Amino acid sequence: MFLRIRRLLFLMPIVLLMASCSVLSREHSLLSALEKLAEYEEEFNEQQKPLIELEKKEKEIYDDIMSLGMKQFSEIVSLSEEALKIIEKRKKRIKKEYDSIQLAKKQLEAVKKELPSFSDQPIKEEASHLAQLLEKRYMTYDKLYNDYQQALQLETELYRMFQNKELTLEQLEQQVAKINSTYDEIKKANEQFNRYTVQYNEGKKALFNKLK
Q1: Residues 87, 78: Cα–Cα separation, whole Å
Q2: Which of 118, 120, 200, 211 has CA 20 to 30 A from 148's CA?
Q3: Who wins on pLDDT, 178 or 25?
Q4: Nearest-CA neighbor of 207 among 130, 147, 154, 146?
């Protein structure tokens, strides 16, 4: 019986538009502050490809396990241990990603503190809109992160279950169903996160065009 996990292999685009400005004004200082967000999220970007590679490798192990029978139990146990090690590596990557987002959040708070002192109302409104987009984006990331953590926990339980000779097909089906449900939530949050990223990039480009 082959039970496929609907594992989500995703890459969250965080290509924040870069701009240089030499005019020393409060508005341009704002733009520079927004650019700092890209620097803080660089660690986030660096984790994406390795995470995808780890997910692919773990999926291959899962497929190998599902192709084996209980007479090959020792091999199943060995493969499960390998999968558990990969999960630990994924946890470390996700932690680095999470930490970079927390730094970006702090930078956003610094940006928001500057907004009340702006004299140009249209610029102030656009900058406030960008800040709101980022807040929503980071809130969505928090859900994405929590759901991903839950998926890792459920997968850890799955590979430990494989090391139990008394594991039943019903137990396996129930666990895989939980994992798939969690990845469905991850997919939704990831899509929303990406939409906010696109909206932010477009809004920042429009703001820069006005400032220059």
Answers
A1: 15
A2: 200
A3: 178
A4: 130
